[in-house]
Amino acid sequence: QVQLVESGGGLVQAGGSLRLSCAASGRTFSSYGWFRQAPGKEREFVARIRWSAGSTTYANSVKGRFTISRDNAKNTVYLQMNSLKPEDTAVYYCAASKTGVIGQYDYWGQGTQVTVSS
Question: Which long-range contacts (CB under 8 A, 24 or more apart) does 56-63 make?
């Protein structure tokens, strides 16, 4: 059974850092993405990584501050978040795609809360 388990969320002051983890069990996927949803807002794309090539894509709002990476041995994807801003406050979700087609994700994690205080 496939499971994506996120961890690493929490409360941090503006300017601080957090690292989110997404551990996948059951199989390896072609690509993984991080998304976030703030209260009253739609879910938005944050970052994406292709598993084999390691190539990455970022939303403009996080480019230069966030880094997505993977650990092949642990079958885990990370989101390093630096220079956090209050507007980064949201529930962050990890997603996995079997095909790697952009925007197409087959499994989602339960989400982890990130709160950035000003």
Answer: 61/87, 62/88
Residues 6+ apart with CB under 8 A from 26: 1, 2, 3
> pLDDT digit string (tens) for 33-72?
999 999 999 999 999 999 999 999 999 999 999 999 999 9
Quick count: other Cβ atoms within 10 Å of Cβ 12?
17
Angle, CA of 44, 80 and 103, to the nearest 5°: 30
State how far Cα 34 lies from the chain centre: 3
4-26: per-residue pLDDT in tens? 999 999 999 999 999 999 999 88
